[in-house]
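Take just one protein record:
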Amino acid sequence: MKYCKKCGVLYVTDVCPKCGIEEPKDQPEPEAADKGTLVRQWIGLLVGIPLFIAAIYIIIYMLYSR
């Protein structure tokens, strides 16, 4: 689904049904990140998510250990 930035309507067609503005067709493709950046981001996720979960457990433990 597409989102019209002018009137805030979600629509499926090529033209917004509320305001009639067409979505531009020639948007540039996003550039792919280099391999080093991708590896660093995956390592950050693999380390960061378990640390976040552990921090939540520690906070809950400290709240209920009084």
Remarks:
- Residues 35-64 form the longest helix (30 residues).
- The CA atoms of residues 6 and 19 lie 8 Å apart.
- The first strand starts at residue 2 and ends at 3.
- The two ends are 50 Å apart (CA to CA).
